[in-house]
Amino acid sequence: LEKVCQSVANTLSVVKINDRTRHLLERSQEQAEQMQAQEEEMRQNMEELLATQEEMARKEQEMSAKMEAISGLALLMEYDFKGSILSANQKLCTTTGYTKEELINKHHSILSNDNYAGSETDDQFWNMMKSNQPFEGVFKRKSKEGNEISIKGYAYPIFDEEGMPLKVIEIGVVIDEFVQQ
User: Which of 144, 135, 89 is nearest to 111 (CA)?
Assistant: First the structure.
């Protein structure tokens, strides 16, 4: 009877262990399937991310080519809302006789007639910029040597997502030949 009881106990123990092993195996298989599904989802996400990055790189290259073309044709300058020049393209430098180093961090009035800064026209311009209104008109700029340059230009205020002013982008073309005619 003792041996039979021991045999039954061993059998029950083996059955219990087998049942637990089967349960653990099932959980392990479920987890493996979940991990495979997650891995597949991550692979798809990575493919989408790579495709998005490639598209952005293509658009960035396209935009860069457009900006280079514009930069070769037009005078381009960026300045903050205090008037300090942030950037200037080579065409602007060539036209005015200044180097980029001479313009960057200087007030944009360095390119204006002496009586422009603080004038009514200057005040109107800045009021438009602060009101997020683009400006279109003829800018009277001066070269390093003091020669007046007439530019048909556009100034666009740039604001961040919260509506805070970031900078003004000014783009224009020299129209001196047309003004003289």
Answer: 144
Q: Summarize pLDDT for 118-175 with one digit per residue, the tens.
A: 778 788 889 999 999 999 988 888 999 999 999 999 999 999 999 999 999 999 999 9
The C-alpha atoms of residue 158 and residue 164 are separated, in whole angstroms, by 9
179: pLDDT strictly greater than 70? no
Per-residue H/E/C for the chain? CHHHHHHHHHHHHHHHHHHHHHHHHHHHHHHHHHHHHHHHHHHHHHHHHHHHHHHHHHHHHHHHHHHHHHHHHCEEEEECCCCEEEEECHHHHHHHCCCHHHHCCCEHHHHECCCCCCCHHHHHHHHHHHCCCCEEEEEEEECCCCCEEEEEEEEEEEECCCCCEEEEEEEEEECHHHHHC
